[in-house]
Each structure stands twice: as structure tokens, then as C-alpha cells.
Amino acid sequence: MITVENLIVRFGGVPVVKGVSFTVGQGQSFGIVGESGSGKSTVLRVLAGLIGDWQGRIQLDGAELPPRRSRSFFRRLQMVFQDPYGSLHPRQTIDRQLAEPLIVHDIGGLDTRIPRALEEVALPPSLRFRYPHQLSGGQRQRVAIARALIAGPEALLLDEPTSALDVSVQAEILNLLVDLQAARGLTYLLVSHNLAVVAHLCPRISVMQAGALVETLSVDDLRAGRILHPHTASLRELAVELEAV
Amino acid sequence: MRIEIEDLHIGFRSPNGVQPAVRGVDLAMGAEKVAIVGESGSGKSLTARAVIGLTPRGAVVRAKTLRFDGIDITTATPRTLGAIRGKRAGLIMQDPKFALNPVMTAGAQIAEPLRRHKGLSRRAAREAAIDLLAQVQIRDPAAVAERYPHELSGGMGQRVMIAMMLAGDPELLIADEPTSALDATVQAEILRLIEDLVARRGMGLILISHDLPLVAHFSDRVLVMYAGRVVERLAAGDLVRSQHPYTRGLLACMPSLNHPRTRLPVMVRDPSWASP
User: Fold this and answer.
1) pTM as predicted
2) In Å, how far is B3's CA from the nearest CA of chain A?
3) Which residues in chain B have their CB less than 8 angstroms from residue A235's CB?
């Protein structure tokens, strides 16, 4: 569904993404793991249309994506950010924020769709007229996911969606993402520095280092240690070591 | 240096009376590494910060004993507290982006406590600052000393903050989620650095985190906090033998590379965990 070919991004002449290519099939989950500065979030931001200056080819279902995205594009593809507090409007009610995508895309039925969207992410209907600061971190991230899903996209771009959350809340959000994917046939592109999180959600994983995609492998190969690149090996070794109790 | 906490209570005034946030915590420690683990709102940061009298305005602190090396924190004057903070005890915070002064160079920020607490000259403080940057394993410390916080990566910023805390030759380091804003690799590097410094300088360490398996690698013993109380105390190597369902839940809900599961167990909170 999403095809990226030889994507190059420069910031002020400095290349930060150096020819990245990958494909994500319809209804599949693809993960990119890497450290800060590896360029993984930049790839996601280019896809979302947040960075306009890039070279290479990006296709959505075989159709080339222009640098400037159309409104219909955002109906098909939505992004969820790391910090739900930063990505929700602090002075708008949850109702107003969930209404926005519906208004932008001329979708009616706000009074049926908003309660349904809250229900889908397991939030009580009473939260509808609250403000973000009245919600817990996990509830806020559920709102961010509900907002991303309310216009019925086919794919979600997930940028460290659980990194700002407590581990028990992380588990709930990961389960929610698994359930939503099963229910709606969503395509996920997940970016994280946490190898265990990426491996939990994605059967196929790419590893980025210093702007380059150094290896793409299946999660089974990763678990079994069938790894080609030393950077992948060191990330795996660290995750395994810290996991042991 | 000895920390003695007995029956510590911290609450916040609200229209409905005092809302308790920490409820009867006990902790006695010396120059050892103690991790306090819990989720947001468990009271772990408040407990650790109370040791140096650094509770937020409006907090009501009450304790049978709350002493830093014999000094009663509940009755200490601002002057006494000022002599502890930044000198005898250092606090490393979560995000260097927000904890460092954005308009001062790294070197100037480290030099400030040196001049203030040790009375060093400008020049001597600058040299000592560079030496501290070298101790936190920054390559080319002289160049980094000239940089401003926005020119530093997250890991480098955290090293600068640690160097700043070492300036007063503290006996205690409080590290409050020191690596939550960092990558997995840098996280491990910073924790190893803290562990190494603590061992070399014979300091005590209070390590606060929500990541139980991670901190267990870098501490001697672990206190698990839930809803303002310590629900379990464990030696760091005994995590697998934890008894409390909350501790077990924290361990079980982490996604694992070695043991894949389609669904993660979700914590079902028993109201009895919150009561004594």
C-alpha cells in the first residue's frame, strides 16, 4: 500500500535520510527502529506531508504522492504522535478535536460518530466534553488515536506512540492498536527506538542508522538472531540483556 | 551520609481537604543504590525529593522522621536546605532540554555551583568544569563546555547535567527518570555512567523510574510504590521472586523480544493495593 523508493531528505544541505526504500502491504504492520537522529521520524514526517522538501518516490496504492498533499490523502492516512499532550489542543474539548477531521472532510453525523469513536478506543462517553489536561496520559493517547481514526483512514503512521506512557498503559495502547487493526484492516507504519515494542506489533522490521536503512528483516529472524548488520545485532543484544530479570 | 525516612506523608491542599500523595513511606539508606519504581502518580518522585526538602509549593509534608545525614528536613531553614541541595545532594532530572538553562553554555552552568559552593575563581571553575565533563566521559570536553544546551544531543545534555551535579562532590545523587527521554542505547550508557560514578565516588543513589527491569540492573534494591505506598521491597536480583500482584503486573505487561505474545496482559488494579 505504501511504497517508498530511494527517499532522500536534506536539512540545510545535510543529508538526514540517505536513500531509504521500503514497502508496506495493505493491512500489514511495518516497523522502523533506530536511535535519535537516525532519520526514522523524518521518514514518517515526509510521508505525512509535514516535510515538503525531499527527493525520491513515494506511492500510495501505486499513485505517486505529490510534495503537497491533497485533502483526500489525509482521509486515507493519519499520524499519531509520541506526546499526546503536545498533539492535542489544550484549550479545545475532546468533542471539538474529534469534530475537526469530520468537518474538514465534510463528514456529517457528528453526534453519532464522536461517541462511537470514543467507544472504539474504550473511553467513557463522559470524557467527550472534557479538556486534555483533565485526562490521564493514556486517555490522551486514546483520544489522539480516536482522532486519527475518526475520518476512517486506511493507514496510521505511529511515531513512538507509547514512549511517553507508563508500562501498564503502554500495554493497553498496544493491545488497542492490535484490536483496531484486526477490526478495521488498518495498515501501520510504526517508528520507535524500543525494539521490543516494534517487534510486538510488526512482523517486518527495518533498522535505521545515520539516515540509512541498514537492514530489513522478519521479526522471527530478529528473535532467532539471524541478523546481518552489526547495528541490528547490538540493538537486539541490548534489548535482550535489559529484559532479563 | 544516611537517609532516614519514617512514616512520610505528603499531601496537597484542595477544596476537599488534603489529598494524600505519599502515605506512610519508610526508607533508611546509606551509600547504596536504591531504586524507587512506580507509575505516574505513585509518589516516587515526591518521596525522593522530600529528602532534600524539594517538594512543590502547596505540598503538606509530615513525617515521624525525615533526615538527611542527621539534619531534620522538616524543620531545616532555607539556608540549611540550600547547603544540601546542589552540594551534598544532586538531583538529575528527566529532560536536559528543560532542566538546563538555555542561554548559558554547558561549561558556565557547571562552573556556577563550583564558584558558589567552593568559592573557586572564574578560571579555576572553568577548568574544573572541563575536568567534570571529562569525568562524565565526554570526548573533547573543552569544546562541549562552549556549547549551549540546544547544540547538545539528549544523551550529551544528560551528561552535562550529571557533571553539574557532581560539581559539589555530592554524597547522594537523586536521579529522577534520568533516561526516560533517551533512546534505549543511550539510556543504558547513561545508567552505566551513573553506576560507575556512584561506585567510584562512594555516593548513595536514589534512582526513580517506571521501568522496573531496567533499573533493577543498576541498583542494589528496589522499592515498588503504588498509590503513595511502598507495596513491595526487593533485592534487585530477586525480581523474579516478587510477590505483590502489582510488581508482577509491571513485569508481565512489558512487550518482550524473547517471549512474544499476541496480547499483553493488562493490569487489573485491585483496590486493596491502595490500602495498608
Assistant:
1) 0.88
2) 28
3) 184-185
